Amino acid sequence: MTDIATRATRAVAATGARRRLNGGGPRAGTIAAFLIPFFLPFVLFYLVPIVYAIWQSFLVVRRTGGQYGTSYTTFGGFEQYVQVFQNTEFWSSTGRIGLFGIVQVPVMLFVALVMALLLDTPLLKLKSFFRISAFMPYAVPGVIAAIMWSYLYSPQLSPVVDLLKGIGFRPDFLGPGTVLWSAANVSTWLWTGYNMLIMFSALQSIPQELYEAAKLDGASNWAMAWRIKVPIIAPSIILTTVFSIIGTLQLFAEPAVLRQISSNISSTYTPNMLAYAVASGNNYQQAAAISVVIAVITFVLSFGFMRLTSKKAGL
Fold first, then answer.
1. What are the φ and ψ backbone dihedral angles of 164, each rounded to 5 degrees?
2. Is 124 left (phi over 0), alpha (psi -120 to 50) or beta?
3. pLDDT at 68
4. Handedness of CA 138, 139, 144, 147 (dihedral sign)
5. How crowded is residue 271: how many other Cβ atoms within 10 Å of its Cβ?
6. Residue 312 — very low, low, confident or very high, per pLDDT cuts 50/70/90?
7. 195, 210, 227: which is closest to 119 by C-alpha?
8. Over 90: is that where the pLDDT of 206 sits?
9. Ramachandran class of 77: left when φ > 0, alpha when ψ lies in -120 to 50, beta otherwise
């Protein structure tokens, strides 16, 4: 029996060695067949456009022969990036979006966390109804949501504005000091349910034994929520924060739609709107440079936040 087992083991090892020499045999082919449908579109529609945008950002358009001469594209090094950093509109839009993120992201995630904790408590009834209701705004496309809210913001059309005027308030949701927060309200309405669902899913994975032990120690529902649940789902909170940082720097649809009814939103109101406006003027190289700078800022902020919070949370 020992000799048979030894020969079988050697045969299996030899077969494995032959498969490795042959490139993995049928198993490697099966893995490749499953991976190619993902990697091919990933390379063609994600990596190639990124590389092309970076290459475009290093090009400049020169003109010879005066006003009626010919133009040509040549390598300009970091000339486009120098123009980006000298552009006051870029810095004002970046500062505006930074203020947006500092206020909107914590408010949205706090509301999402409270909603997730309420859905996780045994005291709440009709959990399925409230969970679907909270998540439903995420199913609405961002442009449609912005159009809906622009109707509610419009002084001429909004029933909300008429109601507030009837009780003595005269709100101006599209004023120079409020239009940014009107856009923030649209983003909060859209994404709170999505972030809530991520946190709620993390709460559902916590073992019930922890709650039972806490109850035996006399912990209240409030204590269990903030001393047990929140620390355990810290990775999910960090993840949603990173997603929110990325989404904030990509803000485009909400202010672009509100711009149609408000003169207080310019075509360069956010960095993405600035890149779009520059590209609309056929300056694709400058737009590519702006986009690359936005991508770098997004990476630095999101990765830096994730590293900082992960160390503090001991992850």
1. -65, -35
2. beta
3. 67
4. negative
5. 27
6. low
7. 195
8. no
9. left
